[in-house]
Write a structure and sequence with these properties.
Blueprint: E1 2-7, H1 11-20, E2 27-33, H2 39-45, E3 50-53, H3 63-72, E4 77-82, H4 86-95, E5 100-103, H5 108-119, H6 127-134, H7 141-146, H8 151-161, H9 166-173, H10 177-190, H11 196-205
Parallel strand pairs: 1-2, 1-3, 3-4, 4-5
Helix pairs in contact: 8-10, 9-10
Length: 209
């Protein structure tokens, strides 16, 4: 039986997932948490084969924290279950060590099949994403621009899009405020805009945030 911990903000997601897998022959939702800070304790107290986690989980400030969980609990596979754009975030979560990325619009049957494969040690990524990553010459505008951005730049861009100031972002990410300013300047250059409003609008239009 595959032991699963579900990490998500929404009670309705916890209820729906637990209900669906209640009598599943291979998957048991062993525990569920509502914040990033609760994950270490959950993984220490029980054997967890797969952690299903939302990238927008309360307290999960950066993909580097996801890497920390993967490093601290190598026996637990990590599967991202998120509403964020798969074309934008799937590759980076895989690079961070996650075993897969499933969009929340997917059927729970697909989630279940993916959990089983991930537990077996298979890295899962949507076939369309694999193709887009392999065929660089055929990338669309969003992919071309996104490939220019580092993990940190994407994170800073997300917080800027949420209306946060440089000093707020520096506290969240634990970085110097000047470093955030540098990332902001790089983003303006890479997205070829001259101000924050245009930066945020372009990022939203390209579905980067």
């Amino acid at each position: 039986m595959i032991s699963v911990c579900l990490a998500d903000n929404l009670p309705v997601v916890h209820y729906g997932v637990k209900s669906y897998f209640k009598d599943h022959p291979e998957i048991n939702i062993t525990s569920h948490v509502g914040s990033y800070l609760m994950i270490p304790e959950a993984l220490k107290n029980k054997r967890i084969d797969v952690l299903v986690i939302d990238l927008e989980l309360n307290g999960l400030k950066s993909i580097y924290e996801l890497k920390a969980i993967i490093s601290s609990f190598p026996g637990t596979k990590v599967l991202v279950f998120s509403n964020l754009n798969e074309q934008i975030y799937a590759s980076n979560t895989i690079k961070a060590g996650a075993s897969g990325f499933i969009h929340k619009s997917s059927k729970l049957e697909i989630l279940g099949n993916t959990i089983i494969k991930v537990a077996e040690g298979i890295v899962i990524m949507n076939e369309a994403i694999k193709i887009s990553l392999e065929l660089i010459a055929k990338q669309n505008n969003t992919e071309q621009i996104y490939r220019k951005l580092s993990n940190r730049e994407v994170e800073v861009l997300r917080y800027l899009s949420d209306g946060k100031k440089n000093n707020e972002i520096s506290k969240i990410l634990g970085l110097n405020e000047k470093t955030i300013s540098t990332y902001k300047l790089r983003l303006l250059q890479k997205l070829n805009v001259s101000n924050l409003v245009d930066l945020v609008n372009k990022a939203k239009n390209l579905d980067i945030v």
